[in-house]
Amino acid sequence: MQGSDRGKDHVDGLPLAAFRPIRSNAAMNNTPILEVRDLRKHYPKVKAVDGVDFSVPTGICFGLLGPNGAGKTTTIEMMEGITRPSSGEILYKGEPMGPRFKNEVGIQFQSTALQDFLTVRENLKFFSNLYPKNMSVDELIEICSLESYLDRDARKLSGGQRQRMLLAIALVNDPEIVFLDEPTTGLDPQARLNFWELINRIKSRNKTVLLTTHYMEEAYNLCDQIAIMDHGKIIAQGSPNELLAQHFQDVIIELPASDFPVTAHSIPHRRLEKVTPTIEISTQDVNATVAELLQAGASLAGLQVRPRTLEDLFLELTGKELRQ
Amino acid sequence: MNLRRIGAVIYARSLEFIRDRSALSWSFVMPIVMVVGLAFIFSGDGQPLFKVGVIADQPPTETKADPNPNRNLHPFLNTKHIDFYTVPANEQAAAIKKVGRHQVDMLMDLRPEQMHYWVNTESPKGYFMELLLKSSDGSKLSQEIVKGEQIRYVDWVIPGILGMNMMFSCLWGVGYVIVRYRKNGYLKRLNATPLTATEFLLGQIVSRMVLVVAVSVLVFTITNLFMHFVMEGNYLDLLVVLIIGTFTLITMGLLVASRVRSEELSDGLLNLLTWPMMLLSGVWFSMEGTNPIMQTLSQLSPLTHTLTAARAIMLDGASLLQVAPHLLILVAMSVVFLAIGAFGFRWTTD
């Protein structure tokens, strides 16, 4: 949604101001909370993760992005201690992951089933009992806004309510790092915005968040740092704005294809078959390009100027072919 | 090992079972309906033949072609519509007990120096057998009267029905449920917590044991109120057999669940185990007199040992010491199943 000037301030028509990342002081801590060195996971016919290196500083939101099958989930599951790596090293607070690791992390998987017939409160209580240290149930209820359906059977929750409950379960042990694997997939815009707010609440408590997502505006708005993966390797890493500055110096002018006259075809452009066919012009000099368009007789009524987005970067780095 | 975590698993699993009304009511209703149904079906004269045991010197072997090889020993043995079966001399005491319980209508000892017959004078069938014997030609036999309470089919079959219910509840309630947890990702979620495999498995075992034992005790108590089962032994001994048998069946379920990834495969494997166990463990009929290979195979089933021990206590008044060999076999089976199941346990489908 940061695909237009308006999109920088709004997500699906709702204001974004509340969801800007909170850069905590802990981000200044020099010892990364997690560090991955030459991590590999090879299956008989596929190298799912093929030599990945990166580190996650304490207190930030770190985004792991990539198309389907890029190796994100395998990487995150190795970092969670769920999948055993073929080779490589994962350090937690500078040391190999030991027994305390499970006590200090919270995990929300892409999809998780729970025991049938248990209410939200009973699920929270059950998972709380599995850890030596707990966040109080009242605190969890407040952070994740669970008040209105605490005593409802967990199977009867809506998508957004369920994700909030699963986030609360991931927080029961007051973890130092929270893994969130595509937590907003399938949620409606309101539920997604609500979830972003929850993630910001977690960050404000000096927790580290490791997030995977398919939504580029989500990564842009929540993540302090991102790593883009493809074919099992990291292909770009840094803060969203740094990466955009590294890869793009231009901005994009968009106008409806019907407003783009034949006489303007000499201006380098590409046609996008959106709902309304759109012409996209990349330029480093907006004024000059607009002047050229006016000279060619183009109507500027539907014109929009937007900066480059993470989605542009993602497509540029990973290509446009459909992934399985 | 953390008791708080084990307790959490037990509590959550028990809540799940108790709130699953359909499964819970099935656990209660099914055995009660079967007991009542069978009692009704066998309340009349269910056995078309009279049954007479024959002890003979060097008894000839019964064959399919000649099921009554003793017929030349006494003219009575040529009477039609009576099932004469050979009793080895060393099983005489057990056979006399059966006469007392109306399970056998008469026992004859036709060895030359013996020439007795045992009959329960309170048994209508025994009365007719005695009349027929007296009216037949041949050597006269001396009468020995046996007293005893009649063992109805329902008395004999109640451990079988409860055992079958236990078997289904343990194998499906543990084996199938764990495979479902693995397939839907719940085990993966638990693996992300400090809960260990041993703690999780112990939680499952204890939760299921408490529920199965409680259901079995309740069903037995309720049906006993109106069926008045024969109970020669001690109820506490019977409870011990129930607990050990349940434990063995649960560990068998864990063995199936330890690695299987799909519900379909677990369903097939559980059927593969339960059907032969139901047929070969003496749930519905005694394995006595069946093919020796079948009898040997039946010894591989934990249900056989559970039912044999339970019936020995209920019908013969056996003590725990007397059924100890069966209990030891059950414990040994449990250790093997649990060791393999725990060692091979996988949290995920990968």
Describe this structure in words.
The complex is a heterodimer of chains A (324) and B (350). Chain A is globular. Helices cover 30% and strands 26% of the residues of chain A. Chain A is built from eleven helices and 16 strands. Chain A is of the alpha/beta class and 324 residues long. Chain A has a six-stranded mixed beta sheet with strand order 8-9-10-5-11-12, with helices on both faces. A four-stranded antiparallel beta sheet of chain A has the order 4-3-6-7, covered by helices on one side. Chain B is α/β, with parallel strands linked by helices and 350 residues long. Chain B has two domains: 50-145, D-Maltodextrin-Binding Protein, domain 2 (3-Layer(aba) Sandwich); 153-343, no CATH class. In chain B, 60% of the residues lie in helices and 7% in strands. Chain B has helices spanning 3-19, 21-41, 92-100, 124-135, 153-183, 186-191, 197-227, 235-257, 263-280, 292-298, 302-316, 324-343; strands at residues 50-55, 82-86, 106-109, 116-119, 142-145. In chain B, strands 2-1-3-4-5 form a five-stranded mixed beta sheet. The radius of gyration of chain B is 24 Å and the shape is elongated. The mean pLDDT of chain B is 84. The interface between A and B is medium-sized, with 25 and 26 residues.
